[in-house]
Amino acid sequence: MIYQKYIKRFLDIIISAVALVLLSPVLLIVAVLVRVKLGSPVIFHQQRPGYEEKIFGLCKFRTMTEEKDAEGNLLPDADRLTSFGNFLRKTSLDELPELWNILKGDMSLIGPRPLLIKYLPYYTEKEKLRHTVRPGLTGLAQVNGRNFISWDNRLAKDVEYVENLSFLLDVKILFKTVAVVFKKEDVAVDTNVVEGSLCDERKDMVQNS
Question: What pTM did the predictor assign?
């Protein structure tokens, strides 16, 4: 497909570059506030599988403190998430550094969200189609439940996106994303717990099959 092979990447480069320039004041302000309120490093890096399962460093603004218990272990996410960090998540401002991932070619503006590496063993052959395209800043699953869509439905939406990828579908997802962000719907405080529970569903199915 011409759009997928040539035009989509071209649009990703143009849009991410323009967005980084236009949003640079916002990025700077958020970076300063994160440094003051949450400490350093300002940017949180996490390894995620991307196109053809190639591992890359996902960039986000940090949203949690480094508070630890008496034994030196990090407190649960919900305990380390401040009101400011919660605001960043609800407004999706914490996702803005991913524009750099898009410009570099690690990600696309629209595509399946890059999940954790530890989930790789639990995809079915069909679900592995999600890695035949670049992961996205937003995607079909994100505009149909965001953090609280079930594991099976989330991956089914990813496959549906890959199988029906088109310019019109990307535009539709983009406009729906704007609506979801402004409504601040379906945002999990502790995404590791939510996604972990979803992964556990699949893990149990695999082990019991």
Answer: 0.84
Cβ distance 111 to 136 under 8 Å? yes
Whether residue 137 contacts residue 60, with contact meaning beta carbons closer than 8 Å, is answered with no
Residue that is written with structure tokens 């750099």 in the block: 100
**Which ranges of 1-64 would DSSP assign to H, the alpha helix?**
2, 8-22, 24-38
Residue type at 55? I
Query: Among 138, 180, 141, 173, which residue's Cα sits nearest to residue 160?
Result: 141
101, 145, 194 from 150: Cα distances, Å: 26, 9, 10
Give 59-121 as a DSSP string.
EEE--B---B-TTSPBPPHHHHB-HHHHHHHHTTGGGTTHHHHHHHTS-EEESPPP--GGGGG
pLDDT tens digits, 111-170: 999 999 999 998 999 999 999 999 999 999 988 876 667 788 889 999 999 999 999 999
Please tell me the distance from the alpha carbon of residue 202 to that of residue 178, in angstroms, as a whole number: 30
Q: Are 77 and 193 in contact (CB under 8 A)?
A: yes
